[in-house]
Amino acid sequence: SALLGSQKTALPLGNGKPPGGHLAERQARHVSQQAHRDDIQRAAAAA
């Protein structure tokens, strides 16, 4: 299990990108866009 743990931490650091490539990047972008929209809605509600 120690080997598995070190393998998990080493994988994303390999080339600076998470495993999954473009799909992971798209999902991360989608999440950040949703967070951005949430911020806008919160600001509008507070205004």
Descriptive notes:
- The protein is mostly helical.
- The protein has a domain of 28 residues.
- Helix content is 79%, strand content 0%.
- The termini are far apart.
- The mean pLDDT is 73.
Concise overview:
The protein is an all-alpha fold and 47 residues long. The chain is 79% helix and 0% strand.
Question: Which descriptors apply to this entry?
Answer:
47 residues, mainly alpha
Question: What is the topological layout?
Answer:
Layout: H1 2-13, H2 22-46
Number of helices: 2
Order of helices and strands: HH
**Largest sheet, if any?**
none
Q: Give the averaged pLDDT, no decimals.
A: 73
Q: Which structural class best describes the helix and strand composition?
A: mainly alpha
Low-confidence stretches: none
- DSSP strand content: under 5%
Kindly provide the radius of gyration, computed on alpha-carbon positions and rounded to a whole number of angstroms.
17 Å
Helix amount: over 70%
* Broad shape: rod-shaped
Give the total of beta strands.
0
